[in-house]
Amino acid sequence: MSKSTKLDVDKELAKLDELRKLRNISLDELFTLIEYLKVNYDPERSLKVIACLSARMESDDYVPPELLQALIKHAFALIMEGKNADQAFGLAPIRGRYARPNNESRNMQITALVILTLRKQIYWKDANGKIIDLILQFIDWEDAVGQVSDYMELGERTVSRAYGEYGSFFSSLENKLLKGYLSDDDIAQLSFKEPPYDDIVT
Predict the structure, then answer these.
(1) 36: how many CB neighbours lie within 10 A of its CB?
(2) Each residue of 135-148: b (16+ CB within 10 Å) or e?
(3) Nearest of 52, 49, 21 to residue 13 by alpha carbon
(4) How many domains does the chain have?
(5) Which of 17, 73, 171, 174 is most deeply buried (CB count within 10 A of its CB)?
(6) What are φ and ψ of residue 108, in 5° steps?
(7) Does 84 lie in the same domain as 105?
(8) Within this chain, do residues 77 and 115 fall inside the same structural domain, yes or no?
(9) pLDDT, tens only, 155-185
(10) Is this structure's pTM higher than 0.70?
(11) Domain range spanning residue 116?
């Protein structure tokens, strides 16, 4: 096999691997991403949604009509307002419509941290590994903001403002999706995990 032929094969294998990954994104995650992208500028995630839908259709996988409608209805409305296709599908910014991009990622991280801090739980297990009790840690709003503020080394007002941008939407997300906005260090700081465990976990 010549060098150029090997490169072509490697490229095609990489394409197939990417296609497989895109097809494995759940419909629920796609719905969540589309709703999020309606109010946030994130061209990387916008392209991911478009690529995923394209991959599903190319493979003749089922795509719910309401999923396509959620994306296309919003995009068409923006086009009717005079926006171009890239702007309508979230691939280019719309002036004055979104939060400043330099703080956007940080503010989403802050919001996810606050919500997960408020949801922290302790699971107790018996000698056989069966969960025998669930204790909720009663962390109030001020405690959660304070903990995140200390961890992020930011003022509490900054944390509160960040939550104000994304809190209403992020509060509806499952823990698994929220963790997607956090680093491994963030998750370790939270000590927030899902059962079952081998010991007591906070």
Answers:
(1) 19
(2) eeeeeeeeebbebb
(3) 21
(4) 2
(5) 171
(6) -70, -40
(7) no
(8) no
(9) 888 899 899 888 888 988 888 888 888 888 8
(10) no
(11) 101-190
Q: Look at residue 35 and tell me if it is in a domain.
A: yes
In the listed set 34, 55, 88, which residue is the last one of a domain according to the structure? 88
Q: Is-contact 45 105, C-beta < 8 A?
A: no
Could you tell me if residue 200 is inside a domain?
A: no
Does residue 186 sit in the same domain as residue 145?
Answer: yes
In angstroms and rounded to an integer, the radius of gyration of the C-alpha atoms of the chain is: 21
96 lies in a domain? Answer: no
Q: How far apart are alpha carbons 119 and 129 in whole angstroms?
A: 23
| Cα angle for residues 54, 60, 65 (degrees, 5° grid) | 70
Residue 84 placed within a domain: yes
Angle between helical axes of 3-23 and 43-58 (0-180°, round to 10): 100
**In terms of C-beta density within 10 A (0-12 exposed, 13-18 middle, 19 or more buried), how is residue 99 classed?**
middle
**108 with 84, same domain?**
no
Chain segment 50-60, per-residue pLDDT in tens: 888 888 888 88
Q: Are 163 and 145 in contact (CB under 8 A)?
A: yes
Residues in the chain: 202
| Distance, CA of 170 to CA of 16 (rounded, Å) | 33
**Residue that is last in its domain, among 55, 88, 121:** 88
| 59 and 112 co-located in one domain | no
**Cis bond upstream, residue 196 (ω within 30):** yes
